[in-house]
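Structural prep section.
Before we set up the soaks we want a predicted structure of the protein with flavin-adenine dinucleotide in place, mainly to decide which crystallisation condition to try first. Input record follows.
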Amino acid sequence: MENWAGNVKWTPQEVLLPKTEDEIADIIKKAASSGKSIRTVGSHHSFTPLLATDSVSLSLDEMQGLISKEANNRAIAWAGTKLKRLSELLAENGLAQENMGDINVQSLAGAISTGTHGTGITLGSVGTQVEEITFVNGLGELVTLNEENNYHEFKCAQLSLGSFGVITRMKVRCKEAYNLELDIRKEKLSDVLVNLDAIVNENRHFEFYSIPNSQWSQTKRSNIVSHEAGHTSKLSAFINDIVLENWALQLLCSINKAIPSSSKTISNIIGSFISNEKKVQQSHKVFSTVRNVKFTEMEYNIPYENYQEVVKEMLKLIEKNNYRISFPQEHRFVQADDIYLSPAHNRKSAYIASHVYKGMDNSRYFKDLEDLFVAHGGRPHWGKMHTRDAAFFRKAYPKFDDFLQVRVKHDPNGVFLNAHLKKVFGL
Ligand SMILES: Cc1cc2nc3c(=O)[nH]c(=O)nc-3n(C[C@H](O)[C@H](O)[C@H](O)COP(=O)(O)OP(=O)(O)OC[C@H]3O[C@@H](n4cnc5c(N)ncnc54)[C@H](O)[C@@H]3O)c2cc1C
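Run finished without errors. Recording the tokens verbatim:
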């Protein structure tokens, strides 16, 4: 088995696809009594070795769908539901998720378990939309947590890297279905940075892609509108979605890989492809894009107040070290939250995601950027490449040891641990 990017591979003894919570409880009890471990997989879209196991790999692909629509725009869904399917089922019920990341193929449980986020300074990660979590813990017990019945444990369970047990269902706070107008522009990076606070505050969603070694950026503003779906230019949409984000990017990255010295020229070509576009669509269609070009990725959360300084330093590093990378970097902005291991814990945040085309060496680029991010209070995305360990996380997260205590309560025998989790938890 391997993850989406192909940078992590593993060979489990068993691959199990349970259909009920009782079946999951039996699997866990059996594993615990025979000294086996279990890793629960979603859609394999994490870049870190979270899923690697030579023991039991358990998938909830057979436990998908909406369980019920509740009052006040709430919905209860099976945790294995892929986000694309969830969006469609919610739309059929007149509902939509408040915010999403830039793809929709993850499972609901997989998405919250690493802190998957989109962009929007008044909005949190996908995990902040979850109001109740039910899981089968390492003792085979079915546990339901929410803010009312156990605030402390619930704040741990909202981002737990699959280390508490197998999440089976969740109650999600939704909104009435809505349309978003997406406004894509080609803008100078320097202009975006000068006006950043205003742009971030004036738009429900704002993100941008910068291109290493180029002065251009592609900005994306999305806001709720009441009018119907439509495009200002189908040609621009085709160029942005299909050509720039997939075909042309694939071709240009292949050239960059074969001829690394071409990176600056390629960055400028990518910049020249960006075209202005406006479209209105159902929210879930605006959030998600298709990602056909494979890459490895590192993404760091930076305190919002340090972001501008970090970007300045990063641009200097890229200029000075000539990394020969032209893959765009993604910049997003989110609200502070109270989830114990959320990178946005207690701080308004910016995220900077750096990508390297599959098969190209990322080591120097990622290491130098990681050193810079860490020096400015950065916390890594749990599902993206990083080299941090427990000593780092203990300093970075004030609730790290509280989290570990709750984890041990729910998994005293370490059924859900693997080598990667032992490193990040310091076990
Ligand atoms: C192309 C691409 C685009 C991406 N875009 C974004 C983005 O926009 N924003 C962002 O923040 N991240 C993004 N990511 C990262 C991705 O959202 C996260 O890595 C996410 O965790 C992947 O979800 P998954 O279902 O594939 O989970 P997996 O990678 O399969 O698993 C992730 C974690 O969830 C746990 N898990 C899965 N199911 C369960 C369960 N039922 N019970 C308990 N634990 C469980 C696993 O054990 C593991 O620890 C992207 C990744 C890729 C490859």
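Observations: The chain has a mean pLDDT of 94.
Flagged for discussion at group meeting.
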